[in-house]
Known about the structure:
With 579 residues, the protein is an alpha+beta fold. It has helices at residues 43-53, 120-132, 136-139, 147-151, 173-183, 188-213, 223-245, 253-290, 296-309, 318-370, 374-428, 430-445, 475-492, 515-531, 556-559; strands at 2-7, 15-16, 20-27, 73-80, 83-90, 93-101, 110-112, 115-119, 453-459, 462-468, 502-505, 535-541, 565-566. Helix 6 (188-213) runs antiparallel to helix 11 (374-428) and helix 9 packs across helix 10. The longest helix has 55 residues, at 374-428. It is 53% helix and 13% strand. The strands form 3 sheets. A 7-stranded antiparallel beta sheet has the order 2-1-4-5-6-8-7, with helices on one face. The protein has a 4-stranded parallel beta sheet with strand order 11-12-3-13, sandwiched between helices. The chain has a two-stranded antiparallel sheet with strand order 9-10. Pfam families: CTD10, DUF2326. Residues 281-400 form the ABC-three component systems C-terminal domain.
Amino acid sequence: xxxxxxxxxxxxxxxxxxxxxxxxxxxxxxxSTDGQTRNGAGKxxxxxxxxxxxxxxxxxxxxxxxxxxxxxxxxxxxxxxxNPVAIERSGDYPTKIFVKKMPENFLPISELDxxxxxxxxDWVKRLGHYCFGLSDSVAKIKNGPTxxxxxxxxxxxxxxxxxxxxxxxxxxxxxVQVSLSYLLKLxxxxxxxxxxxxxxxxxxxxxxxxxxxGALGDILGSASDLRTEILLxxxxxxxxxxxxxxxxxxxxxxxxxxxxxxxxxQLAGISADDTTDKEWLSQLERxxxxxxxxxxARVGRLFNEAMIYVPEMVARRFDEVAAFHESVVRNRREHxxxxxxxxxxxxxxxxxxxxALDKERSEILSLLQAHGALDQYMKFQIExxxxxxxxxxxxxxxxxxxxxxxxxSELKIGRHNLQQKMRIDYSERDEAISxxxxxxxxxxxxxxDEPGKFxxxxxxxxxxxxxxxxxxxSTGKSRMQIFCFDMMLMKLWANxxxxxxxxxxxxxIFDGVDERQIAKALLLGAxxxxxxxxxxxxxMNSDDMPDMSNYPTxxxxxxxxxxxxxxxxxxxLFGFRFD
Length: 579
């Protein structure tokens, strides 16, 4: 329970609290203009100071780190399970908690220049023990419940009024599930195990997505496609192996291949020469037929005609002329026969040469057909090695893909088993769940005609928390769901030996809420605070304070905190305006 919030800043307005309902009302100054607002009066700043003094991290944007405030200290007097404790913090020393009052051996204390301090980490651990019964071993568990993850539901920041199950909108699913499971007396370890499943599932989905987009194409693929590709690759490898086993290397393969080509060209030339000679021989045979026996009658006729026209030129006798003509014809026939004989001899010679060349070429081609070149053999070996390496890679890809598919199957089974485990846990803790559901319904029925519903659903993604207050949805009803939920938590922890005894609500919780529901909420808050011995701190603008005349037991003076803050430059919590 908080006793006092103070600061060594000369203008800061200290605040003293009491048990039960504590109302902090920001007034509108009589001299204020319509343009002035009480948003800077310090209501939310006071909530942030309380949260920070309870171990919140001091970040660059934190209030205490503001240039005008960081040199100063802000302190808090509290009571932890009957133990008086006083601590201070400063923006200039974000990790230190300055100890002003604390029971002996409460936590590890260091001394420097006559001043005692401890680390914020140790302070938070001790708060976790006194407020929620958290052991040091639990505090060390990754994704386990921590004081800050639990306490933030009791002192919500301005970002914690969007949904009852979250104290800020970006809170992780794991944090929500683990924290609320702990606060609702469920097995938080099961909720924590779901985070492990989610992380594995996230990794598998990322790998699959990367595979589909080609980023991991060398590692993963489609199992069915890979099996087909492996089958075809194996077939090609077997064919190459068989070809290499039957392959006989001929070192002079290229020379033989060249010789066979030369022979082919020679045979083509011989065939061309044969064709030419055979055509010439045919012509000579026809010419020889034309050279018949000597025709003396023809010679006689020619002689007589010559006598008529050129008698002076006829100087020889007829028989001499006939003999000469016979000699010419005989010589020509002998010449033709000799030429024909030469051609036939050339053809016969080429025929023999063709037979020899054709035989040689046939032997070479037969040899080439049965053997291969060394470079061709090496080429086969390189291709085989390449395909074998690709086959090994494909086998690895298939193995990795099948392993990933197996992990997905195992993950589904893991989810199912965890869900079953959670259902069994809920069955065994039915009393705690029923208490929470009934408490939420009773609290909400004090605000609205029908009771609200609080549902805990053991889904395959872990516990799911849903809230519903019947009637038309509005911002006001959403905020009242948070009010009912927070009050429910206070009631559930009311009888615990180690419990949070303070609940703080900023004025945001009543934004958009009907005046009648605000009145009922304040009345209910005051009654529950008194009944369960808790401290309920509420900040509001004075003109948002509803008319409480219908509730004679509600005396404003009994609940109002002695803190005057207004909308003027000097009337706020800090006594001055700063950036």
